[in-house]
Model the fold of this input.
Amino acid sequence: MKKSRFTAALCAAIILGVCASGCSGKSGQPVQDAEKAEQAADTEKESVQKEDKKKEKRKEDQVKLDAVSPSAYNNADGIALEKGAYISVIGKADGKAFWNEVKKGAEQAADDINETLGYEGSDKVKVTYNGPSEAENVDEQVNILDEELARYPVAVAIAIADAKACEVQFDLAAENNIPVVAFDSGSDYKGLMAMVSTDNAASAKEAAQHMAEMIKTGSVVVISHDSRSKTAAVREQVFAETMKGEYPDIPVAGIYRLDEMKKIISDEVNKGEYRFDDAEPSGTELPDEEKIREEDVTQENIIDYILKKNPDVKGCYATNGETVMMAVKGIERMNIEDAAVIGYDADKDEVQAVKDGKVAGIVVQNPFGMGYASVIAASRSALGMANEAYVDTGYLWVTRENIESKKVRQMLY
Done:
């Protein structure tokens, strides 16, 4: 009896084992197939989502391109560059929000040219963006230009940091039949093939009109990002002229250029005419061991100096994003009330400052369109096509009241 029970149990175990090994492949196959199908569906879903995002991004970019005038510079139609052609785009900085947008616009132009011409692989038209690691570093930008010209691009597009610094290089480019297009900031060099930029005169005039509306009375100061670029010169000059001509009761108390201020301040400190703290200056020259160097003067020192020299200021007009935020922080640091800050650009900190009411208004430029149109203008020059002398990339006046509007959000970067 025990033997028969054991035999029966053994048989049952063998049968179960056979089923477990023999049947598992068949019963597990549908599970594996289902998992593969699910993975394939997920992959397809991700692919669709990526494509949708790409299309949405393209729509947003098209809004920026539509702001470019003339319209011939917002598309790649008729740009029949040779296979493997190389265009060099050189900005004033690398890694900053504004210049990142310029780079994206330039790269999109290259993509559109290659798509239009059907170029693939090594046949593609190549566009590179380079800029100084330190913003507005003229020497580094000139070195980059030298290096790029040695690569013999078919054309160069450059945002000129110093209006007088690159003439030797531009002559060399002309000798080698390399056309040069300026963008963002130009120069008086006669051989430039086109200028692609914001209408700085119109935007500066509009900024002055908004400043007058905001403060009604009192004085304003101009904080300019440098004394070398044409962009800064036009923005400060037109603003000051508009205030003087149209709003004589709101004087411009001073124009302060960042690259000049370190020497001015260090000289005054060393002569005993100014102190960084709130104590009264001695009025006598400091001994040599107490004197400071220009490089010892910080950006905070510069803004504090400007605000101390103009304690009753009611408005600060800044010519780029850096100077806008310097003014905001200085006003906060010195607990100044009711001083309106307006200026240019739209990086993350500036946009937040507008939303928080710390910046009253900004001129939002179109760096994506600038990068794109610069490549198109450079391409046209390389092909011997006619170019407009000036290509307007557009701008928007943005305040706390309209910053959340769709039109503005599409232009922010």
Remarks:
- The longest strand covers residues 252-257.
- The chain is about 50% helix and 10% strand.
- The two ends are 88 Å apart (CA to CA).
